[in-house]
Amino acid sequence: MKKNLLAVAVLCALTSGAAFAQQAEGPWLVRARAVNLDSANKDSTGLGLSVNDKVIPEVDVSYFFTPNIAAELVLTVPQKHDLSSSVLGGKIGTLKHLPPSLLVQYHFNAAGFKPYVGAGINYTRFSSVKLPAGVDIDRNSFGAALQVGVDIPLQKNLYLNVDVKKVYIKTDVFSSGTKVGTLKVDPVLVGVGLGWRF
């Protein structure tokens, strides 16, 4: 009986300690990443349109509703891209895009690291569009965002983060006011950075 009581007491102490550690971490997690944007560039205009790949800065803020469920807002600054045409022989203009995403995540319980998956929505706003006369694009895009990643503890409340997202971004292309097709950018974003839990 004493052994059983001792085992129960130890178990209670361990679980209460784990719960306290979880609470001590706090519900907020902020990450800063360097992200490689690799565009799919699926074009239905017949012009072979594409935007260039590049490395961009990214910041996200996550709030944990439970130890396993979190919401993440992914942010960056407007990114300038060259728009090129394989048919017309190269660069035909430039544009900027601002692509915030909001995702709901599930964080798995694992020893030594914290993997997660997420899904949500992306809104992209195109601006500073400079294209040949008569050519224009739709300024707004809504699409799905999918995510898989892992937080690896480095020290108290500090994590190394590796994150991969697939974001669905597209815009209709117009010539003299008539739609001629759609450019699907649909990038894969691979990021590495640091996270702080508080």
Automatic annotation (TrEMBL):
Entries under SUPFAM superfamilies matching the protein: OMPA-like
Source taxon at top rank: Bacteria
Subcellular location field: Cell outer membrane
GO cellular component annotations of the record: cell outer membrane
GO biological process terms held by the UniProt record: transmembrane transport
Gene3D superfamilies membership: 2.40.160.20
Protein keywords: Signal
Annotated coiled-coil segments of the chain: none
UniProt signal peptide: 1-21
Annotated protein name in UniProt: Membrane protein
Taxon lineage: Bacteria, Pseudomonadati, Pseudomonadota, Betaproteobacteria, Burkholderiales
